[in-house]
From TrEMBL:
Annotated protein name in UniProt: Alpha-1,4 glucan phosphorylase
Species annotation: Populibacterium corticicola
EC number in record: 2.4.1.1
Catalyzed reactions per annotation: [(1->4)-alpha-D-glucosyl](n) + phosphate = [(1->4)-alpha-D-glucosyl](n-1) + alpha-D-glucose 1-phosphate
PANTHER family per UniProt: GLYCOGEN PHOSPHORYLASE, MALTODEXTRIN PHOSPHORYLASE
Function: Allosteric enzyme that catalyzes the rate-limiting step in glycogen catabolism, the phosphorolytic cleavage of glycogen to produce glucose-1-phosphate, and plays a central role in maintaining cellular and organismal glucose homeostasis. Phosphorylase is an important allosteric enzyme in carbohydrate metabolism. Enzymes from different sources differ in their regulatory mechanisms and in their natural substrates. However, all known phosphorylases share catalytic and structural properties.
UniProtKB keywords: Carbohydrate metabolism, Glycosyltransferase, Pyridoxal phosphate, Transferase
Enzymatic class: transferase
Family as reported in the entry's similarity comment: Belongs to the glycogen phosphorylase family.
MF GO annotations: 1,4-alpha-oligoglucan phosphorylase activity
Cofactor(s) this protein requires: pyridoxal 5'-phosphate
Amino acid sequence: AAQDHEPSPALDATEFVRVFTNELQYTRGVTLPQASNQDKYIALVRTVLRPLIDRWQATQARQAEQNGKTVAYLSAEYLLGPQTGNALLSTGLEDTAREALSTLDIDLDELIAHEIEPGLGNGGLGRLAACFIDSLATKDISAIGYGIRYNYGIFRQTFVNGHQVEQPDTWMSHGTPWEITHPELAQPIGFAGRVEDTINSAGQPARKWVPGWYVQAVPCNYLVPGYGTDTVNTLRLWSARAADEFNLHIFNSGDFENAVRARTYAENISNVLYPEDSTPQGKELRLQQQYFFVAASIRDLVARTLERGVSYADLPQHITFQLNDTHPVVGIPELMRLLVDDHELEWDDAWSITREIFNYTCHTLLPEALEVWPVDLFGRLLPRHLEIIYRINEEFLNEVRLNTGNELLVRQMSIIQEQPFRAVRMAHLATVGSRRVNGVAALHSQLLKDNVLKDFSAYWPDKFTNVTNGVTPRRFVRLSNPELSDLLNDAIGTGWVRDLSQLSQLEPLADDSGFLEQFALVKAHNKSRIAAVLAARDGIELPSDAIYDVMVKRLHEYKRQSLKLLHVVSLYARVLAGTLNAEDIEPRVVVFGAKAAPGYRMAKETIALINAVAARINNAPELQGRLKIAFPANYNVTLAEKLIPAADLSEQISLAGKEASGTGNMKFALNGALTVGTLDGANVEIHELVGDENFFLFGMTEPDAESLAQAGYVPSKFYEKDADLKLAIDLIASGAFSNGDRSAFESIVSDWLWHDRFMALADFRSYLDIQTKVEEKYRDKAAWNRSAVLNVARTGFFSSDRSIQDYLDRIWMEK
Ligand code: 26Q
């Protein structure tokens, strides 16, 4: 039955050749001998798009007819990654395309590699949105993703003398054949201006927003194909175009040249993705982005639903808006404004509809990552929305006062903070205006209830739930690890691609030495593949027979890349000091991939330090080539797909209680890497599922870390007490990695000794000890491979298909 779901190609090789050459001729205007790689790539995409567009149109017709509930995922980020392979997979056209193109002497893989990935997200949150829309389509759910079509996605990272330098991401410079744009369907989005008293059509006093300027939101559609199903959903990203009215309002006619020039102000809105992913800057343009895409999205879906004859009161039966963090929360007052001001509903009716429609997913625990908007800025840009928020807050706080009589609680729960400046607390607005609030891993959801949103969870215990994150097995196993996929298909059939829980059928094969050897061959193959990729891409030379120890994620202090680095430096320092023989080091390649927010100084210095250490140890004769650091620049989805399948060890070493979930951790485990990790985020659930023997657990627990912080953490005590730690830090401080310049990494060294907010030094000993266990286990190949296979067999839970089912059961379809 599983075989039934294998996509069957809509074209054979002969037809493929015909359509492809036709596209070359009539959309590119070239003959085959004239065609560039860009021409061929576009012709390939347009050929593959045809059957997808047929399915897409059928999906829209079917969903309109069914008239059920549509899930609208609102996210400022979608970190899609390359599209071509996924489209070939879902159309079942990969083999056909390869065969067809080879008859024209074209290498399919070369064309696939030609694509520049749409990097319209920062990291975990944006990639999660991309996995979720994949799963929604695969599960045949009527869904639409809404977001922003940035002209420039996440910056391209380069290293200059080991320091990060950002380059603009020009992913659109040659256009993209994946996008279907409709400028004629643009809708005007207002900003600023004033609010007036007015009389509504029933003769009642009302408020009316008169915006000061407008921008047009142009829908750009992307197809989101399910796997093994006919469903092709839509990802609708909005692009900003200057409205004609724009100039009339701001400039007098007459100054034509300046009026035209001023159009770029409006078009700026969708120009660039903000690269901060943890300490949001309260930039006005960012708030413009948020309102721009949310207002366009809500109007789009509400209008289409009302057109189908649905009444206002019934909107919650037909629409659910899922808020991906607080970035789209301005949607709550926007829907209120739409219902009350534009559609003239009573406030109370509008409010009960709104609170039924929105749900909020929180992705953080760090207080500095919680979004707040100064009320003066907010009120200037969105004056009517601020009024609405004030009224929501007033009524909410009156209710809290009535129910609890606790004035302190009233202040704590207020949507408006007074100190250190008056601002809208977006997480409070989201919680008050949503029916359900969820965290992204079991521990995270618990900590949300205990800390960040504790007053709210005490007040509304049933509002809070958990949905543990997941990743799409299509992209992160089937596409990225074809050799493992073949092995799985032979062992348990092909059903796992749509039902990842079937991986549990592998369990008995963990004791089959023949299977373990085949598994080891796949891993070895993937290591050679990544070694070749890194040699060609970055000029990095690596042995392929070593432990591949991989830490890839955004650079942040709480994630503790510096702890990984201290481990490496400590091995080197001990070899130099003569307390460790290089021959006793199990050969190891430590791979880092990480972008730092451009304004995050400590993160950027950490990058420079990793590169400096790499430059030294990679050529240190004392180490006999047994320890290497590879830090390829510009880690992105394309590289992740090559790197993760090659990993033996997955580094998930955040301070317990700081990483909401993590999703890289899941991708690694599913590809048979063993995790070295703390009890943080979804690591807790991975550890629980794979079993302690198959996971390298270390470090403080969240309560441990909390007590240490309460007791007064003094990192220098750990430095004084631990000779290996001291040796490592002293080596860095001595200038060994900076040509004797002791000042180069001075701020990192003094941060370790005097602040160390995320307690890397406190976990150092435990981390070193567990890494010794890693080496011991790796020497026992059979034991290692057994654990690796058990990681695959026991982590099917982390499919984003399962996450989506949880959203359906606990949030979207919950009664
Ligand atoms: C907000 C306002 C202004 C500018 C930028 C931002 C902003 C942008 C991106 C704030 C946060 C982000 C991204 C957060 C993020 O990626 N969080 C991660 O989400 C993952 C998916 O749930 C989790 O697995 C990670 O643990 C969490 O860190």
